[in-house]
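sanity check this fold:
=====
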Amino acid sequence: MFADRGGQDPGDRLGELADLHEVLAALTVTLGFSDEKVHAAAHHKRMKRGGFTLRLWLEEATSVEDTTPI
């Protein structure tokens, strides 16, 4: 999403983050959650499974019941 864009203005990145924030805020309201509930869920997942600060991502997962890649 935010790969090196060769000299992109930091203000542009801030604007993009602001857009993402607006989308997530709208989804939060539409789905009937509070900001606090979403932040608590994010904190719980981060403590259980880690966050995105290391820029690692899952490319494939399999289920114990089904070994077909998801």
Observations:
- The CA atoms of residues 58 and 70 lie 11 Å apart.
- The mean pLDDT is 83.
- Residues 10-30 form the longest helix (21 residues).
